[in-house]
Amino acid sequence: MAAGDSVGGADVLREDLAERSQTIGGIADRLDAIALEVGHWRISLFDVLFAAGAILAALAFAMIATRLTRAALRRLTRLDGTQTVLAEKIATIVIWVTTFLIGVDLLGIDLTALTVFSGAFGLAIGFGLQKTFGNLISGIILLMDKSIKPGDVIAVSDQSGQQTFGQIRKIGIRAVSVTTRDEREYLIPNENLMINQVENWSYSSKNVRVQVQVGVSYDADMALAERLMLEAAGKARRVLASPAPSVWWNGFGDNAVNFTIHCWIDDPEEGVGNVKSDVLKHLWALFKEHGVGLPFPQRDLNLKQSEALDQLVAALEKRGTDAPES
Question: Which CATH architecture has domain 208-290?
Answer without folding.
Answer: 2-Layer Sandwich (3.30)
